[in-house]
């Protein structure tokens, strides 16, 4: 959506409130945080044909064409999605995906600020709060607006052909299980991530487990020294806060 001039004025005045409380660079550089061993894994290509990006739970909130992308845009292209993984520990916890990012350039990010759609009540935002997106199926994805349209078209056709079917159980579950068989490291048996190529298109959408599961999670743009967007990062786990 196109934000109103009044909203943009509020956003400019309140941008300090939208800064990320942690340095997200550390998630993809450090081998350990808060006593937890970390790893970085590559989910493969993500198609960004328009630069308008959505981050959503793909099973619960991506199927409506009314879903709006963030009002700021990224560079058009194809970029690898990568995850910061908290490795399994001796207490028996599984691998947890703490953050997932796309890098639009090799220039480092010097500032991270929450990604917004353009209608949020920034003035009513309290200390320590964020807007984020909701997860109700334990999954999230990063996709371009054009890929979102293709996803909606696919889902509509699939439900017409399978009126009594369940999109996850009858379609995606097999893809996640295949992902586990091909890339078992840092996945549970049923699979924790896929790189999905939408049928009859060239668009790739990564889908991945959402850290600790259902909840609300923030998304941040990374800005380089020149003030240009160079990353987008989905933050699932504040590692220092969660593990200390």
Q: What key attributes describe this structure?
A:
244 residues, alpha+beta, 4-stranded antiparallel sheet, 19% helix, single chain, 31% strand, DUF4241, 7-stranded antiparallel sheet
Q: Can you walk me through this structure?
A:
- This protein is an alpha+beta fold.
- The protein has a seven-stranded antiparallel beta sheet. A four-stranded antiparallel beta sheet has the order 3-8-10-9.
- The longest helix is centred in the middle third of the chain and has 17 residues.
In short, what is this structure?
The chain is about 20% helix and about 30% strand.
Topology:
Elements: H1 5-13, E1 32-33, E2 36-48, E3 53-56, E4 77-86, E5 96-103, E6 111-114, E7 133-135, E8 139-144, H2 145-161, H3 167-182, E9 193-197, E10 204-209, E11 215-217, E12 219-223, E13 229-235, H4 239-243
Antiparallel strand pairs: 1-2, 2-4, 3-8, 4-5, 5-13, 6-12, 7-11, 8-10, 9-10, 12-13
